[in-house]
Amino acid sequence: MSQFANLQMVDLKGQYLKIKSEVDAAIQSVIDNTAFIKGEPVKQFEEELAHYLGAKHVIGCANGTDALQLALMALGLKPGDEVITPDFTFIATVEVVALLGLKPVLVDVDMNDFTIDIDSLRDAITPRTKAIIPVHLFGQCANMEAIMQLANQHGIFVVEDTAQAIGSTYTFSNGKSQMAGTIGHFGCTSFFPSKNLGCFGDGGAIFTNDDALAEEVRSIANHGMRVRYHHDRIGVNSRLDTIQAAVLRVKLKHLDSYNVARQQAAQRYDDLLGSVAQLQIPARVAWSNHTFHQYTLRLLSGNRQKLIDSLKENGIPAMVYYPIPLHRQKAFQPYVDANAAKVFPNSLELSQQVFSLPMHTELNDDMQQFIAENVIKSL
Ligand SMILES: *Cc1c(COP(=O)(O)O)cnc(C)c1O
After folding, report:
1. Whose CA is nearest to atom 14 of ligand 1?
2. Whose CA is nearest to atom 5 of ligand 1?
3. Where in the chain does DSSP place strands (E)?
4. Model confidence pLDDT, tens digit, residues 324-367
5. Domain boundaries, the chain
6. How far apart are CA 207 and CA 183, in angstroms?
7. How many CA atoms lie within 13 A of 241 on its CB side?
8. Cα separation of 268 and 364, whole Å?
9. What is the maximum span of the chain, computed from C-alpha positions, in angstroms?
10. Is the pLDDT confidence value at 134 over 90?
11. CATH superfamily of 254-378
12. Residues 294, 319: Cα–Cα separation, whole Å
């Protein structure tokens, strides 16, 4: 067994203990005020996150999946309109497209950085394409400059799925930088506990610089109403709880240092594993920094399941994000046009090669050395 009592993919307890008094006081204050729904901390957090991101509007909601759904609902799309998403991502990105009666169009990803492949994206655009959802996978931004160019050229909306990349920075070729999620028409994020900015339950948010879209999202998230009991359209009920907002206000102050801790841990893994021939460490692209929601390697040769089992025997968790590409998921068979002989070679190969090692803010040298030694031993 491991010399480390409890190695985990994510150490939420260790992170909490360091900010315990502050978080506990914030939660207690919500309880004291009993403003559980739409309490003051929700508005305060929305303003603070908007300021942090340099976004004009932040709208809290119940989770990251809702954030994507609300954004798409606000765009006024019609049934059958096509929405392009990468084939290699968490299901939520594409699920909401199908749920709204829109047509998900899956495209392959780049072998190097795992984000949407620009050539495949260009090829997938048709007159019916109304939106693109790039995913900033594992903490690194998709090529937003190329995506925005294509989108502007064709009059297509862009909804960034930044659930895994809050706090990442995108740099354009002219040297100008913007925070992930503030470049497209909407940015959508999740505060699921294990995300880089996680709350103590479910939570999510939408960012936009467009006043009208922001108002539309607020109304949709609130039963389609702007004036109480006047319902202008069919909406939903999706709110960020006051208690979660109170926790997030505390954690937002630490987000930059959390992301630095992840980057340092990633660098240590790189140093320990970068020269191993069977392994491909995570690439870094020129246009984005990497905030390492996951530290994901490719196993270029060898048996991945054997490696994971062997790590587990030594008390080291390892996970596969994601083992089945979307085009192979049962739920998406109706959307994959069999006649078009659509293939996703990169996405498929990645799903067979990738594995992620423990990545969180509480990792230290000794733990990572132990993990790396075991990875090398288990190859
Ligand atoms: C976590 C995640 C979501 C969904 O967030 P929830 O808060 O769990 O609904 C969406 N997209 C990606 C890429 C994610 O990682």
Report:
1. 163
2. 64
3. 57-61, 82-86, 103-107, 129-132, 157-161, 169-171, 177-179, 186-190, 204-208, 225-227, 230-231, 279-280, 295-299, 354-357
4. 999 999 998 888 765 455 789 999 999 999 999 999 999 999 99
5. 13-107+115-252, 254-378
6. 10
7. 16
8. 9
9. 65
10. yes
11. Aspartate Aminotransferase, domain 1 (3.90.1150.10)
12. 10
Q: What CATH number does domain 13-107+115-252 carry, 3.40.640.10, 3.40.50.300, 1.10.8.420, 3.40.1280.10?
A: 3.40.640.10
Residues 6+ apart with CB under 8 A from 266: 282, 290, 292, 295, 359
pLDDT tens digits along 152-174: 999 999 999 999 999 999 999 99
Residue nearest to atom 6 of ligand 1 (CA): 64
Contact call for residues 194 and 362 (beta carbons, < 8 A): no
CA of 214 to the centre of ligand 1 (A): 21
The owner of tokens 């320990």 is: 272
3-state secondary structure of 131: strand
- The string over 69-92, giving b where at least 16 C-beta atoms fall within 10 Å of a residue's C-beta and e elsewhere, is bbbbbbbebeeebbbbbbbbbbeb
Q: What is the pLDDT of residue 342?
A: 73
Q: Whose CA is nearest to atom 2 of ligand 1?
A: 163
Using DSSP, state whether 45 is helix, strand or coil: helix
In this structure, the residues whose C-beta lies within 6 A of any atom of ligand 1 are 63-65, 89-90, 92-93, 135, 161, 163-164, 190, 192, 202, 204
3-state secondary structure of 212: helix
Q: Is 329 exposed, middle or buried (0-12, 13-18, 19+ CB in 10 A)?
A: middle
Burial of 286 (0-12, 13-18, 19+ CB in 10 A): exposed
Identify the CA nearest to 89 among candidates 377, 346, 360: 346
Phi and psi, residue 85, nearest 5°: -135, 160
List the structure tokens of 54: 């340099």
